[in-house]
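INTERNAL AUDIT FORM
Audit reference: QA-55
Scope: verify that the stored structure record matches its stored sequence.
Auditor: D.O.
Record contents follow.
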Amino acid sequence: MKSKFFAGLVLALAFAAGPASARWPLPIVNYPDVPVVTSSGNPPSAARVKEAILAGAAAKNWTVAQQADGNLQATLKVRGKHTVIVQITYTPVKYSL
């Protein structure tokens, strides 16, 4: 009797542990028209904004590819299981993710 109870308890815990350990989904957040700010207060060129985006992405292990329309596509692979792809548009005064 005890062994059946123990087996049932183990099965119940095994089935409960799966959903209990799953993480809640997080919402996708867009960042439209974020202003570009420099320490000098002067607006940078589009090339300088692109350089800053590339440097920031590389510092966080993102890979960035130039798209045909002039935008950037940043990709991050997490533990070989998940992939995040972000479209980045930019001008000298703002950028959007």
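Auditor finding: record pair retrieved intact. The chain has a mean pLDDT of 86.
Action required: none
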